[in-house]
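Re-run requested by the PI after the first attempt was lost when the workstation crashed. Everything re-entered from the original request form. Ligand of interest: flavin-adenine dinucleotide.
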Amino acid sequence: SDQIVIVGAGHGGVQLAASLREEGYDGKLILLGDEKDLPYQRPPLSKAYLKRATPEDGVLLRGPDFYPQNRIELALGERAVEIDRAARRLHLKSGQVLDYSQLVLATGGVQRHLPIEGAHLNGVFSLRTMEEARALRGWLETAQNIIVIGAGFIGLEFAATAASQGRKVDLFELADRPMARAVTPQTSAFFAKAHTAFGVNLHFRSSVTAIKGENGKVSSVVLSDGTSLPADMVLIGIGLVPSDELARASGIDAPNGIKVNERLATSDENVFAIGDTVYHYNTHRGAEMRLESVQNATDQARTLAKLLVGKPANYDHVPWFWSDQGDLKLQIAGFLDESDKIVLRGSYEDRAYSLFGFKNGALTGVESVNKAGDHMLARRLLGEHILVTPEFIADPASDLKALVR
Ligand code: FAD
């Protein structure tokens, strides 16, 4: 009989369970997660939750009643350790064994470990889970000298908040600009300036080579040029490693995350994967990739729910993302890294602008700062493949809204 087992109760897993019921799936539904907290949203952990602008239950993905009401067997604190593909059985660390008709891996990823001395001292954090966020927020109350390693979204969001609370914040990044893998050089330059104004001391092309401690607690960091800085708290945000070990151990193809086809099936037709851990062909990119975003996890979940109940569906949704840093809201739709032409609307001075990226005359992506309207419009232009020229975008007199009317 039908028994769908979902491994991972994060953004993707919870959305899939909800969507399966919405799409009319009537069989058994088991949602496993190795964290103990009721499933919650991750983005606020480096935003509203960190600033204490939301209570803890304000970040839950669904209320506690949602699961029993929808006949979703939520098993928290349970870790899947082995897939017996021939018998269609999943083994849990607790010793329990679950039969499945279909298995879905929504296992996300873990923060990349920094292999330097002192990375395990008290006061050294990474930020992926609620458990880590709780501990980190506690330390932030008393820490004075804060070191951030990595100028990615999480490091920058945290740095801006810490600086706004009057802490001394030094951020180290190996690349020569912030968010180097995710945004245009123009937006990197804009944010570098903004963070300096927030009070964050930015250090590019430099790294921390060791963390020193006293009585098991961080006390200073050593830099690549040999100097050292006092530190009573360190946040490491140097990227994500996909949690694909369960798939790989059972022989499922996982070159850089778990590989899926256009039906989100892995190399085993009864095993599917969604979210951060997925390596897929992205139609907007025209290449295989992993995407780490709420959009990707939830849209893949909605697509897979349809497919699992036998409805036609395709994962071809417009990729989009946001990040809140200080008073700046960055929003990205599509991709700009292969653009051969970038057109600015708005102005950097006004702290409200959008960059429209074109490749061979076609719009491929839009980066917006404090321009939510442009972002929503960009998602429609890209999703509905509406033709628009660089000249039209470049003319301040053009009415962009007329394009989607
Ligand atoms: P997750 O939400 O990570 O869920 C996976 C779950 O599976 C985890 O609970 C994990 O512990 C569990 N698991 C793994 N292996 C096993 C196993 N073997 N057995 C049982 N359970 C297992 N995205 C945005 O779009 N915008 C943002 O502003 C943004 N900000 C972020 C800020 C922070 C601090 C973080 C950490 C992430 C942020 N993200 C943001 C990224 C976003 O949260 C992820 O893309 C999203 O959570 C991916 O969902 P997922 O279901 O793939 O994985």
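Saved to the shared folder this time. The pocket of flavin-adenine dinucleotide is lined by residues 7-13, 32-35, 42-43, 45-46, 79-80, 106-108, 127-128, 154, 243, 246, 275-277, 292-295, 297, 321-323 (CB under 6 Å).
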